[in-house]
């Protein structure tokens, strides 16, 4: 696990597709969705199993436990399907299990459009300064969000403890 001792960003934002889960929700998933009994995955109409990358649940738990606010910025054209899957997937947070949707406490910007617009909405909702934000995304074109003053870390093969470590190191290098 990454070093979660201070300093830490006040808000960490994640893209969904190929960052938190290994598919494009708007093209690879066919509704309806059915959660498995443990809510660790869901299955779509074609039988495709849908879940987070393996280390994502523990990453979300660790960051929440460290007091970091979490958000989502996704430009998917299937926002209701993304929210539905976030409702079906559950994450252990401390001693309780919560819907993944609830781990983000409403800090969800899931709609087509510019990631800059997503970041501006998250900043307005939270009041967190851009310099105190770290954004994980798999698309290099979204580096344009850095002109706002936040740090973006390019995720190569899905979110992992190693990507978290590298992203935090880059945020610390730029802000400390």
Automatic annotation (TrEMBL):
Alphabetized Pfam families for the sequence: Acid_PPase (PF12689)
Organism: Ophiocordyceps camponoti-rufipedis
An example molecular function term from Gene Ontology annotations: acid phosphatase activity
Gene3D superfamilies (alphabetical): HAD superfamily/HAD-like
Protein name as it appears in the record: Magnesium-dependent phosphatase-1
Tree of life domain: Eukaryota
């Amino acid at each position: 696990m990454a070093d979660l001792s201070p300093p830490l960003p006040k808000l960490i934002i994640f893209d969904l597709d190929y960052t938190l889960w290994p598919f494009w929700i708007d093209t690879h998933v066919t509704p309806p969705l059915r959660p498995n009994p443990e809510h660790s995955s869901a299955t779509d109409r074609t039988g495709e199993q849908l879940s987070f990358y393996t280390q994502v649940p523990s990453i979300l738990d660790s960051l929440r436990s460290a007091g970091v606010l979490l958000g989502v910025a996704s430009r998917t054209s299937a926002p209701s399907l993304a929210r539905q899957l976030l409702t079906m997937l559950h994450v252990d947070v401390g001693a309780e299990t919560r819907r993944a949707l609830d781990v983000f406490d409403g800090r969800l910007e899931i709609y087509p459009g510019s990631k800059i617009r997503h970041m501006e909405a998250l900043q307005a909702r939270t009041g967190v300064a851009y310099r105190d934000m770290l954004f994980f995304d798999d698309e290099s074109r979204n580096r344009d969000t850095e002109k706002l003053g936040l740090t973006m870390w390019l995720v190569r093969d899905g979110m992992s403890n190693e990507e978290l470590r590298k992203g935090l190191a880059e945020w610390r290098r730029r802000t400390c």
